[in-house]
Design goal:
The structure is a homodimer of 371-residue chains.
Chain A: E1 2-3, E2 6-9, H1 13-24, H2 26-33, E3 35-36, E4 39-44, E5 47-50, H3 58-69, H4 86-93, E6 99-102, H5 110-118, E7 122-125, H6 135-142, E8 143-144, H7 147-150, E9 153-154, E10 159-160, H8 172-180, E11 185-191, H9 194-204, H10 209-218, H11 227-230, H12 233-245, E12 256-257, H13 270-276, H14 281-293, E13 296-305, E14 308-317, H15 321-324, E15 330-336, E16 344-348, H16 353-369
Parallel strand pairs in A: 1-3, 2-4, 2-6, 6-7, 7-10, 12-14
Antiparallel strand pairs in A: 4-5, 8-9, 11-13, 11-15, 13-14, 15-16
Chain lengths: 371, 371
């Protein structure tokens, strides 16, 4: 039986779903992979629960999940009280080789992960932030050695970050396979936001922009402040991760982002923003009409091609994979030397705590068996 | 610099393309992966070229490829003359840990691969045959150990066979990730034949079956005897590999195959078969009409679900991923607990020597870096 201990950072929706799935699959992993995934520590900003024995027992773990679901504070379970020093947690656990799993949404974990990797820990990230700050941080998290200025060589034995782009969909893994074969990737184009996919589908169906956004907001498809989705920055981070995956040296500031609202509406209160939405209806009605005039449809697309990384509304051929896309699913097209004129396409649910946690678990098992 | 020596079985289209791609990518693999892929032996039924030094040099390899392209016999290059004992070739090379790459199309390599794996070699298969004969052979090729009757546990460190299903498309890898996460796979449905995809698209466009098949034959999209494609057995082998990938204990004889011609036309000469094609036009015109009546379209689908593995023409929802498919691309839908109601979809070119060889090379790099 092989043992791959886990240190979990973040017990929000994805972290909690991951704990449930790990516990639920213990028999499956033992029987089919002879693999054991003990959890040694669980921490978030509220606190940390750490065992110095073999593992936290499943009852404790599930109790924690239920407790967090009820807005409980981990600190009330933990010895330490508020936990602002995740690096200290990892040192207390002190098991190099263990897999540090980042299910938080903060860039504050970046130094923790870099330090852990440097000390022989492995890492799985569901968190986009550490991979989308400075290039050097991306390099240290994803590459081994430090030839040419901290860049090092691609390797797959210490880190996985599949769920940072398209949740559980095999996007990063597919890109890595194309790169490994030396197939030149000419263009990546993808729809990476279920929320914006929903909005674009609504526009295509002839609804006014204001109506679609209000509906999405009402249904909870958007963040409390819909501008967090409509601005496109989250999509830009995914495009950046793909561009860096291609080996590009590029920063988030270099990604050309076209959001779905004008700058003058970026600062006002949410209510005011919602009231101003109808002023944007004509603009989007025109964009859809212009696209239709060329036999195209409007999608919110992330494009990585010709040295440029851009994100925004784009008219795509109606009969292309992106053109055929409906609703909230994510889709990515890889146009390469061997995959043209029709691209290699990966499509499906690109969000949701369970689908994302399942992708994280796949990354964990791959790392564990890759030794 | 890490070294992953290769023993290549088969120097047809895929084997030759693989040699070209390995040679072409030496600098890329050295720089980006610190990886060296020396080729120690190249063999096919005509003979074998073996080095007892570090590696066959690239000039010799490319010369071999050109020679084979001109219908030359490897034997004229080789010491041994006709090579019927691949196991002996591997023993002569004598480097356990080396990767045996099967680019042949014969089940005769099965004992060779099993023997090599048992002696510590690793394997990459582009060849479906060894994985679609007896279940026990599949188990020995894809699993480690021999708990419960030779079945053993899933492992990824010794064998890869991504290109046996959808060529370079990430199909087996995606299935393995779903399994690793414990996400229950409820249904797999796919189009795995470019030739049959072309035929089905033609039928959808209103062409008579006889006309589409003759055109495909004329363009060389089909085998010299089109029945080799129309019979569906090649697709059945792919469905079987997916079913066994799910852990099913199943033989090729258990796959329900519906071909595109009646049994009475299976024995006659090709010319006679081509002449008889118009007698099938009405049947397929009706199938298309019946499908259209339910808002569906006709596709040649491999289905793995509810304990049954079947292959044949099937009416699918026009707005489903399979329904949106056009032309020769392959497409596979994974319907799982987390991927429903819309499935996880992988789509793109599912054939071609270069796309297939690139997939084999990705498998080789993954195995080489997975140590």
């Amino acid at each position: 039986m092989q043992r791959a201990p886990i240190i979990l950072l973040g017990v929000g929706g994805v972290g909690s779903a991951l704990i449930r799935q790990i516990v639920h699959n213990r028999a499956h992993h033992a029987a089919d992979y002879e693999l054991e995934l003990p959890i040694l520590a669980v921490c978030d900003r509220d606190g940390a629960v750490i065992t110095l024995r073999d593992a936290l027992d499943d009852a404790t773990l599930l109790d924690l999940v239920a407790y967090k679901a009820n807005k409980g504070r981990l600190a009330d379970h933990s010895q330490g009280g508020p936990q602002n020093d995740l690096a200290a947690v990892i040192d207390i656990v002190g098991q190099p080789g263990a897999i540090v799993v980042d299910c938080t949404a903060t860039e504050a974990t970046a130094p923790v992960l870099m330090g852990a990797l440097a000390r022989g820990y492995r890492a799985v990230l569901a968190n986009k932030k550490p991979l989308t700050i400075q290039q050097e941080v991306y390099d240290r998290l994803t590459r081994a050695g430090d030839t040419d200025g901290g860049r090092g060589v691609r390797q797959f034995s210490r880190a996985r970050w599949e769920t940072t782009c398209g949740a559980g969909l095999p996007v990063i893994g597919t890109l890595n396979r194309l790169l490994a074969s030396g197939d030149p990737v000419l263009r990546i184009a993808g729809a990476f936001s279920g929320t914006l996919g929903y909005v674009m589908s609504g526009l295509q169906d002839g609804q006014p922009f204001s109506a679609v956004v209000r509906e999405a907001h009402r249904l909870g498809y958007t963040e409390p402040d819909p501008r967090d989705d409509l601005g496109g920055v989250d999509v830009a981070r995914k495009a950046l991760i793909l561009a860096r995956g291609l080996g590009w040296r590029i920063e988030l500031a270099d990604v050309a982002v076209t959001g779905l609202y004008p700058a003058e509406l970026s600062a006002c209160p949410v209510a005011e923003f919602m009231d101003a939405l109808p002023s944007l209806d004509a603009h989007f009605r025109n964009l859809v009409a212009e696209a239709a005039a060329q036999g195209k449809v409007l999608r919110y697309v992330a494009t990585v091609a010709d040295g440029k990384c851009s994100v925004g509304p784009q008219a795509v051929a109606a009969n292309s994979p992106l053109g055929n896309l409906r609703g909230a699913d994510n889709l990515v097209e890889f146009h390469t030397r061997w995959y043209q004129p029709t691209p290699l396409v990966v499509q499906g649910r690109g969000a949701g705590v369970d689908a994302t946690a399942a992708g994280v678990l796949s990354d964990i098992v791959e790392l564990a068996l890759n030794h």
